[in-house]
Amino acid sequence: MAAENNLTEKFAKAQSIDFVEQFGKSIKKLLEMLKIERRMTLPVGATIKTYSSKVTLDGTKVAKGDIIPLSKVETTEGDPIKLAWDKKRKAVAIEDIQAYGFEQAVSKTDTELLRELQKEIKKNFFAQLAKGTTSVSGVGLQGAMAKAWGGVAGKFEDDDVTTIAFVNPTDVADYLATAQITVQTAFGLRYVENFLGVDVAIMSTSVPAKTLYATASDNLCLAQANMAGSEIAKAFDFTTDETGIIGVTHDVNKQRLTAETVTASATVLFAERLDGIVKATITEAAAAAKA
After folding, report:
1. pLDDT tens-place string over residues 65-104
2. In angstroms, rounded to a whole number, what is the distance separating the alpha carbons of residues 247 and 217?
């Protein structure tokens, strides 16, 4: 009986390590894809502030000895983002464990849970991109991309800008069908590097058709609670990796005869400057001519 219990714990620990490694690798790929270098470790409950800024320079030519007039800098706060716990639990019943085997049954459903966790992060991120305050329009996808690139370059003109664009797959379908383009995948997102003047173009149905979002990679940041080595990890026997981005534990519920997976994390991917998010509308040539 003791040997059987030990064997179960080894399986559970191995499953937790595998889950954490998969999630950690997917996060690393996401950061690489978006060229993100800024990561913040914050306590759960911390409030992240976003903002838009506007500078109005006084163009007066100042005579010798005269008072220099003030230029105006306005900063408007956007909707605050609260770093909150994201807790998930799923269970595999004895019937499925018997049918597929313990490791297969848990691994199969863990993969689905992993996808859902990724979807949560992406859903919140795209919802924030939609709040961008800088709008442009261009004829066709290439024209809209050019306008978006120009808008981002203008907002971050003093920086070495890496432009990241987000576009609906239907708007790039023609290009993908006719051009020799290498499409890659990271964090469940398809992307193309050096596409129509932008450094990275990410395709997602979360972006409305005939619309694209663009921003600088320096405007993007990942905030997280650190699950590695924390008191919480010790208390609940969470397995984590060096990213500390998620804690995972596996256990059995003998009353229900289920094998359970429990995850806890607090992660937010966001753009700091809302005016640094350029929303471009893709217009048709005929519509543009009438305008």
Report:
1. 677 666 666 678 888 999 999 999 999 999 999 999 988 8
2. 27
What distance in Å separates the CA atoms of residue 101 and residue 103, rounded to the nearest whole number?
Answer: 6
Query: Are 272 and 50 spatial neighbours (Cβ–Cβ below 8 Å)?
Result: yes
φ and ψ at 278, to 5 degrees?
A: -100, 125
Please state the φ and ψ torsions of residue 175, each to the nearest 5 degrees: -65, -40
Look at residue 139 and give its three-state secondary structure. Answer: strand
Ramachandran region, residue 177 (left: φ > 0; alpha: ψ -120 to 50; beta: rest): alpha
pTM: 0.84
Nearest Cα to Cα of residue 22 among 99, 113, 94, 84:
113
* Extended strands (E) in 69-133: 72-77, 81-82, 86-93
Torsion angles phi and psi, residue 104, rounded to 5: -65, -45
Name the helix (H) or strand (E) containing 172: helix 169-178
Q: What is the pLDDT of residues 210-232, one digit of tens each?
A: 999 999 999 999 999 999 877 88
- Chain centre to alpha carbon of residue 57: 35
Give yes or no for a contact between 188 and 114, defined as CB atoms under 8 angstroms apart. no
As beta bridge partners, residue 23 has: none
